[in-house]
Amino acid sequence: MSAGSASSGTAPAAHPAAILPPLEGSARAFGTIALSAAVFMNVLDSSIANVSIPTIAGDLGVSATQGTWVITSFAVANAITVPLTGWLTQRFGQVRLFVMAIALFVVSSWLCGMSWSLESLVFFRVIQGAVSGPMIPLSQSLMLASYPRDRAGMALALWSMTILVGPIAGPLLGGWISDNYAWSWIFYINIPIGLLAGWASWQIYKARDSRRVKLPIDRMGLFLLVVWVGALQVMLDKGKDLDWFSSPLIIVLAILAVVAFVYFVIWELTAGHPVVDLSLFAERNFSAGTVALSIAYGVFFGTVVLLPLWLQNTMGYTATWAGVALAPVGILAIVLSPIVGKLMGRLDPRAIATVAFLVFALISYMRALYNTQVDLYAIMLPTFIQGVAMATFFIPLTAISLSGLRHERIPAAAGLTNFVRLVCGAFGTSITTTLWENRASLHHSQMTEVARPGEPAFDHVMNGLQHLGLTQQQGAGLIDGLINQQAYTLSATDFFYASALLFLVLISLIWLARPKTASVSESGVSPAAH
Question: Does any domain span residue 251?
Fold first, then answer.
């Protein structure tokens, strides 16, 4: 291992990829495929287990609530190691770290499939989540280094396509495997993909590894990171089930997360060799791009969670038909991503991102017009249009976040951006589901003020139901079910209205960034219009 000394934790040795020429021909094609396969495997695994929880829980003899620790354990470990990417890259080299992460991911996937109890599965999922953390940011960095600077937009487009396809394919594939095979195969399918991706990545990129710098371990920073991220993730995952701050456990987790986070920020900003490079937020483009991307992703991910819940729990859709209704989101995203990648070299990425937020606002408004009579076409149309927003969302905002950064800082920046995005996604999920139920309770109480005995409309409906042969209790139950359906639908439309307004507000945040062509020559990130 080549050792060296850095003047600070944010000043690693020079990155050879900054002077090596980009890959050409078949090497670049196979490199792109290998990186994409690794990313797809990673993103797929983060969502494929979600629909299999009932099957896994039943097979292991635990409740479905206990089974959700299979998801939580992965998410906590993954969230902790993603921001460590920059430090780990300096320590091991980005190619060696990437291939090591893939190899360990394959091993942990095999162990997950071999699990004999919930405790063993959760333990192996922790390992799987931890080793998978650096894979996505490093794949992003390696993909950018594989392409000429004037084609960086295309590199980001190809990378984004795998990020978009994974969450769509995960639930569908997980459900199909659980219904037709043993649940362990949702983990075993990673083994051939990972072995091929790891072998190909090493063969193509081993001569392009970054120089390693033996930095001291920031033990206190690492400890504080584990504490506040772990406490926050568990709080967000379990808050809704435990009725949030009426639970002593949630209160303790919230206090622990806040205190540890404050100490973490102070420590990392003053440490000689910080484990997470928070100084990146001093960069205007990084801050504006990361914050806009993360908040928008949180709102978007809230929608991804809310729509299938509403369709299945309120509108009576089966899991299969809910998947069909939401599947069209990937069509335009996959078709348009390469086109957006080509446009990145000629258009201002802020303008492209503005288009994404306008489309997000439009589809949120379209969904805000839903009612209990909405048909499948009306549900699928905005989902199909959303593909335009997805194609114009990740690519320009990622380019803005990385614009102007030196090449050796890109792994750390990509890791930190993805970390903030994941945290906002967790916030979006928890806030959305909680608000949905709270607003539904409010709408339900408002409607029952007029739907009660003594009100002419209620008495008229009850008389009609009794003439049809229903008892008073059966009629009241039927009316309450209709009120619940209306209440949850109105609550969902409230969220969509709020989402539309928030996307419009976020447009102003995008234009705080100042990506410039002059800075592109330093970072290799796609240029802006000026």
Answer: no
